[in-house]
Description:
By secondary structure, the chain is α/β, with parallel strands linked by helices. The chain has helices spanning 8-12, 56-68, 106-112, 135-149, and strands at 17-26, 32-37, 47-49, 77-83, 93-103, 120-126, 156-157. The protein has a single domain, classed as Nucleoside Triphosphate Pyrophosphohydrolase (Alpha-Beta Complex), CATH 3.90.79.10. It holds the Pfam family NUDIX.
Amino acid sequence: MNRLLPDPVYFAGLPKVITSGAVILRDEHGRVVIEKPNYRVHWLLPGGGVDAGEDARECAQREVREELGLDLQVGRLLTADWAPSRAAVSAPMGVHFVFDAGVIPFAELEARIIPQEAELDGWMVADDAALDLLGPWGARRVRRCLAVLDGEAEADLY
């Protein structure tokens, strides 16, 4: 018997991966919009998990609309990063895509952002020192994306 695709047992045995899409949204001073979810200790970039049938860019655009009330065009891919699986908490490997969402002046951000109360405790624009609120991994990822935007580094596409 000739099979073009492996049977479901083969797929069931493969590692699982969770993907997400997030954005780097800056103000006119180069500060980055970050948000404080009520379900995490640390702050995050605007974004979230990819739903069935959407790609990471669509996810990032949807999440920014849902979380912050902003309908933005999501631009180029800045990085594709990953986090290893963590057996201790049964977490699968994660692949995180971060896109450029451009620049919006701070006064306009203040006027337009409507945080999703069910999920967010707040938001802020973070300068370099405040990026540490994202935790070591998150801060390193954002600083790398900013270097790409400033032309100091190539996009990281692991």
